[in-house]
């Protein structure tokens, strides 16, 4: 498999990452977000210069196939912070509240829910996904 270069644009900054093999979505987010706790919209640029939403494993696989078919093998990603809504001068971020508990921190999952593809009932929250290798089987994909 060919190496894929991923160029991530955040505002005026561009970061470049090389991948020898396709990461799973959780690993990809860990690299792209670079440890940030801010929530982002992730979009990749397709062959028609459209911005395509990338929000799960299936989307990443499609983007990766697109990159492998491109010359050079570059996947261009745009990150935009999700805007916070202002209500009576109080800023709050609206996140989906899932009917699921994070198996690492035991809190109700708000925001992105990471579900283990190998286990019938194992979920991690946006925070704990970054420590998934220390709290769950590192061979499992989320």
Count all strands and give the number: 11
Mean pLDDT equals 82
Query: In angstroms, what separates the terminal alpha carbons?
Result: 22 Å
Helical fraction: 10-25%
Count of individual helical segments: 3
Helix/strand order, N-terminal first? EEHEEHEEEEEEEH
- The percentage of residues in β strands lies in 25-35%
Largest sheet: 5 strands, mixed
Which descriptors would you attach to this protein?
142 residues, alpha+beta, two-stranded antiparallel ribbon, 3 helices, 11 strands, 18% helix
TL;DR of this structure?
The protein has 142 residues and is an alpha+beta fold.
Give a structural overview.
With 142 residues, the protein is α+β, with helices and mostly antiparallel strands. It contains three helices and eleven strands; from the N terminus they run E-E-H-E-E-H-E-E-E-E-E-E-E-H. Strands 2-1-5-3-4 form a five-stranded mixed sheet. The two termini are 22 Å apart. The relative contact order is 0.17. Mean pLDDT is 82; it is low at 84-92.
Secondary-structure map:
Blueprint: E1 4-10, E2 13-19, H1 25-33, E3 40-45, E4 51-53, H2 57-69, E5 74-81, E6 85-87, E7 90-92, E8 97-101, E9 108-110, E10 114-115, E11 123-124, H3 132-135
Parallel strand pairs: 1-5
Antiparallel strand pairs: 1-2, 3-4, 3-5, 6-7, 8-9, 10-11
């Amino acid at each position: 498999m060919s190496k894929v270069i991923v160029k991530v644009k955040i505002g005026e900054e561009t970061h470049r990452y090389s991948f020898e093999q396709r990461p799973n979505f959780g690993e990809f987010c860990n690299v792209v977000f670079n440890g940030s706790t801010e929530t982002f919209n992730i979009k990749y640029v397709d062959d028609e210069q459209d911005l395509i939403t990338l929000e799960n494993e299936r989307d990443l696989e499609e983007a990766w196939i697109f990159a492998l078919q491109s010359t050079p093998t570059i996947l261009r990603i745009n990150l935009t912070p999700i805007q916070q809504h202002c209500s009576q001068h109080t800023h709050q971020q609206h996140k989906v509240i899932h009917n699921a508990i994070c198996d690492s921190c035991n809190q109700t999952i708000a925001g992105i829910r990471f579900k283990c593809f190998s286990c019938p009932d194992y979920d991690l929250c946006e925070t704990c996904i970054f420590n998934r290798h220390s709290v769950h089987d590192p061979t499992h994909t989320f």
